[in-house]
Amino acid sequence: MINNYNMKKIILTKKKIIYAAFLSQEGHIASSFSVLNILNILVKYFIFKNKKYLNNFIMSKGHAALGYYAILNQEKYINDKIFNDFASFDSPLGGHPKRDLKYFISSSTGSLGHGFPIAAGMAFANKITKKKKHFYVLMGDQECNEGTLWETLLLCNHHKLNNITLIIDRNYSRETDLSLGDLKKKLKPFSNNIYVINGHNEMQIKKSLKKFSGDLKIIIANTVKGYGSKIIEKDNIWHHKFPKSKKECELLSQTILH
């Protein structure tokens, strides 16, 4: 799934997420942990080339932005000072992403359901100009309750946009509020390339992202909200909660298992 060296890096990155959330008294720790393995693979292998950002990734799940910043910090694209200044008044790294290519943010996101339509527009523009860039969108499963997802799927089908990979973080955290049911079955009319994977298994993530697709690719990544922390995992009280004291910060850091 993930070797010991990489696991140690991910554990350290999760501890840095907890510390940054403590410093800022802001951030969605549990959501960031949910998508961290996916972001790790995207940043390492798919959205940078020769250390240059390809402007081809949209973090539609904007409230998990701290996870994206943490992986950028882990891979030394942003330094500790910038990262630990997360969500301060004049920080470039907001609680939700604000478009700034200097910090590898292709689009401002926050209201759920907006990232995929933006990526579709970028992909369509690239198709018209005959460019060969591929676009990646990471969205939460509850964004599937937004009409914008289904409208954009229709648009992608109509214009035959096969230069997009849509990754859905399927952590089931709000399933009791409005169930999505069999998500693959619902998405099947829009794509012949749907993959259901373990969203914490980095080998599966990388393999699914590398698969050739002659159609819109959709990856349903089954994850656990708060993955890796025995305190935070599956506890929705941590959706938008952060350590209030240094002692609580240290206690949370000690609970990170993977």
Description:
The chain has 258 residues and is an alpha/beta fold. The protein has one domain: Thiamin diphosphate (ThDP)-binding fold, Pyr/PP domains (Rossmann fold). It is built from nine helices and seven strands. The chain has helices spanning 4-24, 29-45, 65-74, 80-84, 115-128, 147-158, 183-187, 202-210, 246-254, and strands at 48-49, 52-53, 57-59, 135-140, 164-170, 193-198, 217-222. A five-stranded parallel sheet has the order 3-4-5-7-6, sandwiched between helices. It has a two-stranded antiparallel ribbon with strand order 1-2. Helix 5 (115-128) packs parallel to helix 6. The longest helix is centred in the first third of the chain and has 21 residues, at 4-24. The chain is globular. The termini are close together. The relative contact order is 0.17. The model has no long low-confidence stretch (mean pLDDT 95).
Give the secondary structure arrangement, pairings included:
Layout: H1 4-24, H2 29-45, E1 48-49, E2 52-53, E3 57-59, H3 65-74, H4 80-84, H5 115-128, E4 135-140, H6 147-158, E5 164-170, H7 183-187, E6 193-198, H8 202-210, E7 217-222, H9 246-254
Parallel strand pairs: 3-4, 4-5, 5-7, 6-7
Antiparallel strand pairs: 1-2
